[in-house]
Structures are given as C-alpha cells and as structure tokens.
Amino acid sequence: MRHETLAIIGASGFVGSALCERLHFEGCWKFLPFIHSSGAAARLARLPLAETPRVLDLLDFDALRATLRDDMIVVNCGRGDNQALSRGFQNLVQAARAAKVRKFIHIGSVAIYGDDPLPASADPSCPVNAQATDYGLVKQRQDELVFRLHAGGVPSYILCPSNIAGPYGLTSVGLVQRFAADPLPLVDEGRYPCNLVHVDNLVEAILTAAASDRGAGRRYFVNELEPISWKRYFDDFSRLLGIRATYLPVSRDAVIASMAPVPVASRGLYEHARIALSGEFRRTLLMMPVLEWLNGRAAAAFEAMPGGWRRSIRRKFERPVRLPKTPAGPSLSDAWVRLQARRPFHSPETLVQELAFKPALTYEKGLELTAQWFRLFGIGAARPGYCHDAFSG
Amino acid sequence: MNDQNWTRPPFRLAVVGCGAVTEACHLPAALKSSLVEVTALVDPALERAERLTRRFGLRSRVAARLEDVIDLADGVLIATPNHTHFDLARLVLERKLPVLVEKPLTTSYDQALELCRLAETNHTTLAVGFWTRFQPCVRLMKSLLQTGYLGAVRGFHCESGSRGGWSPVSAYNLDAKLAGGGILVVTGTHYLDRILDWFGEPEIVEFRDDSFGGPEANCFGRLRYQGASGPFEGSFLVSKTAGLKNRFFLETERYSCEVTETEPNDIIARPHDHPDLVLRLGSSCLPRAKNADYYQLQLEDFIASARSGKPPLVDGRSGAKSVKLVADLYAHRLQLEEPWMWYRRPGAEPCGLTGGA
After folding, report:
1. pLDDT digits (tens, 9 = 90+) for B174-187
2. Does B350 or A184 have the greater pLDDT score?
C-alpha cells in the first residue's frame, strides 16, 4: 500500500468511477472519492469503500482548503458547467497549492487544439489553438493553471485523452445509438485515426503518473499505442455488438466547409421594424402592464387611421415568405462526422518514453470488454424483448 | 377528482420530510390541489422545512417532530428516508389518522404487514406512493388483461434506467440499510408494483445485481407465472448508470404491446396479424391530460379514500406485496457478472505501481 492518498475529484463521473473501482479492487492505494452530489454516485455507492464518497463543492474554497492535505495526490476528473470548470477549478488549484499537495494530476482534453486540429498537434507540446470551442478555451485555461501550479512547486501532470470509450461511457453509448439510427456518414473512407482510448487505459495512465517521480510539468496524450482508423473501429465495434453498420461516403472537405462559421446577415432598419411589429415580439412585451397599455393606445391610433393608410403601412412591411430547402444527404454537423474529420494521431509515445506507460488493455481487448457491457442491456445478446434502441437520448 | 370533495373544507395535510421529492413533487401537487391545505411541514432539520415555507410562501407550522403538529392534520404524507417510514406511519395510524407513505412502504415485510393490520383495525387509510399507477396506460392495461382483450400473455420485459437521478438531501441513497436496497427499491419497485397489479405474485427465476455491499446500481431479474392460458416468463432490467427508454413490453397472443413513460395515456399495440400496423389504445373512461400531475392525482385519491373509507388505488396490502417481492428478490440474489471489470479477476496483474522510474 502506498503512503500517499489519492484525492479523486469528480469521483462519480465516467473516469472517476472507473478509477475508484480499479483502486478498490486492487487495493494498492488509499483513496478518497469526492463527488458533487449523491444522485450520480451509484457506481461508487455499491462498493464497500473504506471512505464513503464525500460531497464537495469546488466553488467553496474554504471547504476545499480544509479537505486537501500535504500527503495527497489530487486527481482531477471533474467536469460540470463552465463555472465549475473555471472558477471551481481555480479554487481547486489554489487549495492544492496552499495545502502543498504531493502531486496534481489533471485530465485535460485535445479540445484545446480546436475542432480541426493542425497536423502539428500530433505533438503534445504544440501551441494551443486560440480559435478553439468554448470548452476548448476553458480547458486551455485549466492547463495554464496546472503549469503555473507546477512552477509553484507542486509536481503536476496533464493527461490528455481525445475521446474516451468503454463501459458506461457516453461516447460508446452514443455510437451504439448512432449505429441504430440512419446510415453513418464515413469521412474519406474513415481513414483518419479515431483517437478513442479505453477508459481503463486512461485510468492506467493516471496510476502511472501517480506512481512516477519524473516527467512532471508536461502534457501527455493518452491513446492506444497505434492509430486505429475510424472505419476499423466502426467495423470492429458493430461486429462485436451484432449490429450491421451502414455508411454513407462523405468527403473531409465537405465536412470542413460545413464547420465554417455561418455569416450572420446584417439586419437593416426595415427588418428591425418588422420584428418590432410582429405578433410574437409584441405578445412578449405585453406581459408588462405598462407596455400593454401603450400597445392598446397605439393599436387604437392605428385603427383610427383611414383604411388606405393602414393598408399602405401594412404593405410596406410585407416581405416574401422564404422557405428553406430541406437539406439533401447526411447531416455534416453530426458530432460523429466532425470527429472523423480530425487527422492527427495523438500518440502516447511521450507517456511511454517518459513515464514507462503500458496500456492495461490492448485495443481488441478493450473493445471486447466494452461490447460485453452492452450485452447487459441486450445489445448483442440473444435475449427476447430487448431492442437495439434501448438507450434514451 | 372526486366531485363530492369540492364542497368540503380543505383536507389538512401534514407533510413529513422536506427533502428533494417533497420539494419537487409532493408539495407542488398539494399546493395545486383545491382539496388540500398544507397545515404542517415536519423535518428533523428544521431549516429545510423553513426553507420550503419561504420558497412556497406557506403559513404552515414547521416542526422537527410529527408529534408536535399531528393535531393540526386530517392526514399525513410521509416522504422521508425509507428506513423511517415504519415508525412514522405507525405513529399516524395509532392516532387513527390516514397516511400516504412514499414507496417503499417499509424496509421489511413484517413491518409492512403490521402497518396494514393497524390501518384495518383502526378503519383508516394506508396508501402507498406508487404514482405511476395513476397513469391511464397502466390502468388501461390492467383492464385489458382482466377482460382478455389482448389474448393470453406470452411474456414481458421492462427496462428502466437513468444516469444519476435523485440526490436526496440526506444522501441516504448511498447507504443500502437506510434505503432498504438500491436501484431495485428506488426505481424498480414502480415496475414491480405494476407487475404485481397486472399479473399477481410471481415465482422468481433469477435475480442478479451489481452490489458489492452497498446499494446496487444495476439489477436484472426473471419472473415466472403459471398463467390461466399457460405459463409465461417476464424479465426486468433497472439501471442507474445508463439512460434507458423506461418502457414495458408485453407479448400476448394477439399483440406486441408497449407502455412507455413518455406516452402515459396510451398503449402502443402492434397486432400480430398486421405487424406493420401501429395502434394506440386509450380509454375514454380514464382522464387524459397532456401534462397530468400524477402526484396530485395520487394525493386526491388518498383524500377521497380517507373521507369515504373506500380503499385507495394503491393500498397498504399492495405496498406490502411489493416489499415482500423486493425481499424475495434480494433473498435470491446472485452477483451480476461484470466481465469488463478485468481487474476483479483472480491473478489480474496490478498495474500502476510498476509505472515510473
């Protein structure tokens, strides 16, 4: 048993729960699970843990400071809304620094490189993309705070998976739902790397970083050792699940073009006036009594006008009704399509070289274990009454 | 709503337990009902009761103990951690007052029977909070099964799941003893209640859950019936780790039927002789509402029972049967196999400690 205690923040989440289960059954580390609320802690609650999961609000700095100790290794698996990701994370880092924790391990994200990452982002030291999504920008800010924490004397690691798959995972469930829906668009024959890492391999990376006494202060990609193409992943997974996956070919160029921001049409004075006079807008405003009174006066004045004036005013604001075409072909805004357009392979080579990381599961084994979890829900199992569309949205 | 109740003064209700389900469901239902006046809110953590009075602008008395306010009530609603139901309900029934107890009725069958006997001896109402029974599709299904309209039952399967769910203020759901179990009790009992109501008491073929000592997060069971037209089997799957569609499939001689949470007014039926046909079976006798509040219907049914002496839709005996079936299922419990937890296997190599220099 190690001397340090792993303080697992976000212990009831997908990664946190997988980590706690592994720690519980292996018994090599003392650990304390911290959760946001008891409702989502079902996976943890079923275990006879030495320490009951504790509710901890990251927005409460004093509670955080009172919780963290200098014999702890903080593992941050927390997610949540932007406030938890920003202010809550800032509190966590400050409390970790104040408590002089032994080590800080943070789960980052390749979202820091944007929706269409550059080939250079295959290297974890590549500069982040300032045009990333809101989530990517929040994760960039988190990484900056972790690097500062490291510079301030707390050895810190950023483990950066791309997409995390495995039992209980929403990514895997989402893919099964996608298989059960329309044919899946396949981008450039599905040739780009899927960067899907099994959650147990991410857990292995966390434990490797926790046990390591070198390599701190860096960002590490966590992934399968060799690139797996989307087509291979889709084919292998659907075959194990007993689902017949069907594809529609689409080009990466078309997907990238669809990701360009849609220019917002400038709205002139007429458009503003038309909105102001529209029934929807007025009905909303009329919820305020004073505006209801004003509207009554304006309506009375309008009705008092000669008929020709009224008709003329109405005509001036008439515009042709525009009915958009129903789009033909697959939706390119589907997350499963956009993910396929990413080209770099985020290799775990640095993790292997620096921290001697060894994945817990091979790609094939991880996929097989994931498929076994789905059999609990009747997918790929020969049980009557079950359906492939078992999962809700 | 019972028409005769309109002319009477409101039913004075004491609500015991001011946690999540009271705040989100029971109290809004009581406040919407013109039949009810909430005269008291009880919670050992007084600040919770006081918070609810502020939130809903109530003038109800607040108290830490039911005994202190029970004289202000014509009846009591109990929505507290499961292990406290028995003592609280017994206190109410001993005063010969009617009581609506949130499910499960109790955490043991003996306790449930004792409450039933007490209610019967004192000629008062003991109702149990299985609100899904008030959904028109559930009531219609019972009627169709009783009349044989669907033909002989061949089998059924139900599945219910959500990622996460209720976060009780007291977090008692993390303790199997306080909750009386895990997801089987929290959610599965709604389906067990329906199964008992429709088909009667089953023989247990198999029950598996994923508990390692704490409340289970997933469970799966198989039940068997010796039906009048031949034996049939049914199964259920309840999960607190996967979002499922919350539906009940019933296979009969003539139809494949589906009852879902999203369409509580109708049964979706596919006749075997026209598999491409989708029929919606609804009842013209049962109230249909787009956004019906089943907690309100349940409360008004309880009040009607308390005032008329007629049994409520879900009475204590129904609640006791559910408690018994839960106990029997746990008694048959086998470990749910989870082969994806490879590190549980004997001889699995511990990793992580070997990493690093």
Report:
1. 777 777 789 999 89
2. A184
* CATH classification code of A5-251+343-376: 3.40.50.720
- Cβ–Cβ gap B243/A393 under 8 Å: yes
Q: Which of B177, B263, B340, B344 should one mutate to test binding to chain A, selecting the residue with the greatest count of A CBs within 10 A?
A: B340
Q: Which of A376, A383, A386, A388 to mutate to test the interface with B (most CBs of B within 10 A)?
A: A376
Is the Cβ pair B357, A391 closer than 8 Å? no
Per-residue model confidence (pLDDT) at position B6: 64
Q: Residue B355: which pLDDT band, with cuts at 50, 70 and 90?
A: very low
Q: Angle B320-B321-B324 (CA atoms, 0-180°, nearest 5)?
A: 85
For residue A393, pLDDT over 60 is answered with no
**Average pLDDT of chain A, as a whole number:** 89
pLDDT, one tens digit per residue, over A23-33 is: 999 988 999 99
* Residue among A42, A207, A214 whose CB faces B357 most closely: A214
Smallest Cβ–Cβ distance between B343 and the set A25, A389, A391 belongs to A25
In this complex, do B341 and A358 lie within 8 Å of one another by their Cβ atoms? no
Is the pLDDT reported for residue A381 higher than 80?
no
Closest CB to A42 among B183, B351, B355: B183
Higher pLDDT residue, A124 or B269?
B269
Q: How would you class A30 by CB atoms within 10 Å of its CB: exposed for 0-12, middle for 13-18, buried for 19 or more? A: middle
| Domain covering B133-285+319-335, topology | Dihydrodipicolinate Reductase; domain 2 (3.30.360)
Average pLDDT of span A301-319: 88
Residue type, B96: K
- In terms of Cβ atoms closer than 10 Å to its own Cβ (0-12, 13-18, 19+), residue B50 is middle
| Interface touch B214/A47, C-beta < 8 Å | yes
CA A61, CA B15: separation in Å to the nearest integer?
Answer: 36
| Residue to substitute from A20, A38, A208, A369, interface B, most B β-carbons within 10 A | A38
Q: Which residues contact A184 (CB under 8 A, 6 or more apart)?
A: A178, A234, A245, A246, A247, A248, A336
From residue A99, give the alpha-carbon distance in Å to each of A62, A92, A95, A211, A214.
12, 10, 6, 20, 21
Please state, rounded to an integer, the average pLDDT across all residues of chain B. 91
- Which CATH number fits the domain B3-132+307-314, given the four candidates 3.40.50.720, 3.20.10.10, 3.40.190.10, 3.30.160.160? 3.40.50.720
Contact B357 A213 (CB under 8 A): yes
**Is A211 in Cβ contact with B355 (below 8 Å)?**
yes
Q: What is the pLDDT of residues A221-269, one digit of tens each?
A: 999 999 999 999 999 999 999 888 899 999 999 999 988 877 766 677 8
A212 and B356 within 8 Å at the Cβ level: the answer is: yes
Tokens of A154: 């707390």
User: CA nearest B293: which of B316, B264, B318?
Assistant: B264
CB atoms within 10 A of CB A214: 10
* CB proximity B217 to A under 8 Å: yes
Domain ranges of chain B: 3-132+307-314, 133-285+319-335
- Each residue of A178-223: pLDDT tens digit? 888 889 999 999 999 999 999 999 999 999 999 999 999 999 999 9
Residues of chain A positioned with their CB less than 8 A from the CB of B341:
21, 25
